Structure formats: C-alpha cells, structure tokens
Structure prediction request, 384 residues.
Amino acid sequence: MTEKMNNRAYQICLHCIMDTSDPNIVFDERGWCDYCNNFESTIQPNWHTDRTGENALELLACKIRQEGQGKDFDCIIGLSGGLDSSYAAYVVKEKMGLRPLLFHVDAGWNTDQAVGNIEKLVDGLGLDLYTEVINWEEMKDLQVAFLRSQIPDQDLPQDAAFFSALYRFAHKYKIKYVITGSNYSTECCREPEEWGGYLGIDTLLFKDIHSRFGKRPLGSFPLVDIIVSKGFYQKILGMKIAKPLNMVPFIKKNAEEELASRFGWQRFQHKHHESRFTRFYEDYWLPRKFGFQKRRAHFSSLIMTGQMKRDQALERISRPEMDEHFLRQEFEYVASKLDLSVAELQEIFDGKNKTYRDYRNKRWLIGLGTGVLRCLGMEKRFFR
Ligand SMILES: [Zn+2]
Prediction:
C-alpha cells in the first residue's frame, strides 16, 4: 500500500478517528482534533432538530409552497438512490408537503440497488422523475483523462455531472429551490481536500486535464463552474439551496429503517455505494494508491453525532469494506467499462501520484469564496 506519509509523527484523535493522514490536522491538549472542536464550537450550537428545527422547516415549506404557486413543481431534488437524497425526498414530500421534481443523473455507474431504490421511492411517494443520461463516450473520456492525471480527486467527473446537470435544469426551467440531502448528521466531518475532496467544480482544472489526456470533445457534458453556480445562479438570479435534513432528526439507522419499511428501500453497506465507480474509488483506488480512507471521515461524523462508538469505527476501518476477491473483480469491471485493459488500468494505478496543483486551476478564488461564506456563518463545516 502506498501511504502518503508526511514528516509528522502518527497521531489519531482520541474522540473520533481522524488522524495525521490529513496532513493539516491539529490536536488540542485533550488529544481531540480540530474537526471535533469545530463540531463542538460551531456546528452543534447552530444545529437544531427539535422544535426550533421543526419551526424552521415549516417556515421554509411555507415559503417554497407560496413561491411555487401555479408552477408544475415548487422545488427540485437531486436523487442518487443513496440514503441522504432518498430521505430528503421523503421529508420534502411527506413532512413539508411540497411538490418536488425528482431529478436523477445517470452517469453510467448506478448499482442495481440504487436503481431499485429510485424506482421504489418514485412509486411510493407518487412523484415525477426526470432522468438525465450523460453521453457515455464523453463521460468515459473525461474519467480516463482524470485517471491519467494521477490526482486523488477521481470523483470530480461524476460530481460535476450530477451537480451541473441539476443546476442547469433548475436554471432552464426556473425552479428556484434546489433541495439537497447534504447534512451534518452523516457529513459533519468533511473529508479534507488532500483526500481528493477538491472544493467544487473548477472548469479551468477540468479543461486543463481534459486537454492533456482527453481524446474527444465534451460537446454535451454538463459543466457548470462553481463561480457560475454560486455567483450567477445563486447570488444574482436568486436560486436557493435548501438542506432540510439539518432541520429534522436524521439518525442514519432510523432513517434506513423508515425508508425500508415504508418503501422497500434497501440500505447500502456504506455511504456512496450507490455508484459502482465511487465504491471502487473510495474502497480501492484512494486508500491503496494514496493512503486516504474516506471512511475515516464518514465514521468520524457518526461518532461526533453519537451514532457510532469509536471502538466500532476502529474495528471497521482496520479492514477493507469489501473483500479482496470482490475488489479484484471490480478492478476488472472498471477497466473494461472504461475500455482499458486491466494492464493499462494497473499501469495508471502504479503511476506517480500528483495533485491538482500540477494543473491549471483557480483554487485560490474558490478558497476566497469559501472563506467569505465561513465568515458570514453560512458554511459551518471545515474546509481546508
Ligand atoms: Zn476528532
């Protein structure tokens, strides 16, 4: 395994399981990390799932309902089939009484389980679904270009497709409210940027990587730059992003059971397993090539929010989520799906690791915007 080791001595938080694989982590005198401290000081005091949250949810629902009068839909929800977006769809329809359009982007990597979950929710909630299918030849070309770029941020092409298509559709059809399943309960410990968590869709970075390693033009691939989505769509045109899961009790285990009993929805072994590529990327590519375990952040979020014991998390992370045989099969599947031979994918895997800093980007500008949001109190999670 390739561990990206920095010069500091190994240290792990005594409260969660974040450790020095995040090169910028800071520990206090208790041995607690800055994610835990940020949760205690900034997130927890501002996160209400009791009466206060209920009132805020009701107020939001009223506003969305009023502004959506006379329209076919009053809001839009990006649905992946995973827990967070599925539960958000359920809350929006059943608890907020809204008329959302469910919007799904098919980037070619859906697991059967994700597809099944989407179908069950659409039927069970009696809502309309719009599916945007990404041109597979373009998707494949972009993904292979990203793999060849050797940066850890290998989920950017899928993320870009999901969010860009959603924003573009909402903009085109003048749907003001975009609902997301983003939440503190399972995501309060955001993966550090070094672990392939680039801060947003940066078209400069995409274009540079694609111009060096891509083979065909991206004629139809949806690519909305973060400056356009946050600046133009949200600040100028007034598009609003709502996160209702932060206003209701959202306990992972209970939410899974609720969706299962009401709709026959099936739980996933782990977060992000709705996409076959993401599962492979997070369980194989990222830990083995770069030494980063996204599960470390996922489990830490659950520890901070009281949904998992630290011992359990340490035990789970001590071995891969999927077994070796399965991961080997997935390696072959991903290679053949991307029209690469197993040897070609292996060659990329064995190549020298790089970071986004090796390519043209406007990370400084995105950082500036994120810094402003944090100062204004609009972003409470840590972005480093
Ligand atoms: Zn911690």
Observations:
- Residues 51-67 form the longest helix (17 residues).
- The CA atoms of residues 193 and 199 lie 7 Å apart.
